[in-house]
User: Fold this.
Amino acid sequence: ISPCDRPAPATAGLSHDKWEIDPSELVLMEELGSGQFGVVRRAKWRGYMDTAVKMMKEGTMSEDDFIEEAKVMTKLQHANLVQLYGVCSKHRPIYIVTEYMRHGSLLNYLRRHEANLTCNIGLLLDMCIQVCKGMAYLEKHNYIHRDLAARNCLVGSENIVKVADFGLARYVLDDQYTSSGGTKFPIKWAAPEVLNYTRFSSKSDVWAYGVLMWEIFSCGKMPYGRLKNTEVVERVQRGIILEKPKACVKEIYDIMCNCWAQSPEERPSFRALKEELHIVSQGLI
Ligand SMILES: CN1CCN(C(=O)c2ccc(Nc3nc(-c4cccc(NC(=O)c5ccc(C(C)(C)C)cc5)c4)cn4ccnc34)cc2)CC1
Assistant:
């Protein structure tokens, strides 16, 4: 049976904390890349399960707070969320073990497959719908992502797209990333209330989702091109929004624009977005 039919590895029996994974059961394989946290490698768990292991560089995150939160994160389970299997926290660096997604980040996937994606509106819309389903699940569980973007979504077999690293941003220690004035802060995905007051909510995730939709229909272009962060902040605060991507029909662009309403209350919920996207996708057939 395929890994996604198997339950998340319950490490019961080896340690009393089911979110604690025994590192001796992981066989580390090739490097998948490195984020600002350190190296990410593929690993086999108990000889059969493909996993991705983030080896957290020391000093990059508040580890104890994260380990506490991991207990909650392992309970968030949905077909469009990258499943957190557990952590190895008895040694340093700590490991964050998740399900493995074989095609890597959605951003790289869009850029690599631009040629045969631009003409496939149905596939692009399906990717938007999958991300929206994962986000609607988080919204229902009052869980805020805080860094939703194509770079933080992953692609598996059969064009499955899943949201990754939800909530992880809270544990980053680098204030170049956490403060809105920092060089690593994701300004281009930030809602006005996040830029002005760092006020995160599911509605600020909806703003970021609109930018993610724009990334998908632009096949991985950088939003606002080469504009400097200060220029983007000024435009967003004046209500200037991203222009319609070429490959995007008006009905879909209108949905993106709804995500960019200045006031959070005016933006649709992910639950409402899911309905709107479904209706548009029916209309396309
Ligand atoms: C044919 N192609 C060949 C090249 N290719 C790959 O090499 C490739 C294949 C699979 C990959 N899969 C995964 N890659 C990663 C991965 C790889 C590198 C970096 C990262 N990301 C990070 O380290 C990271 C993410 C978020 C954050 C914030 C700021 C939000 C807190 C900080 C750090 C993840 C995580 N995964 C979790 C599940 N599956 C994967 C990644 C890359 C893709 C396929």
Notes: The longest helix spans residues 121-140.
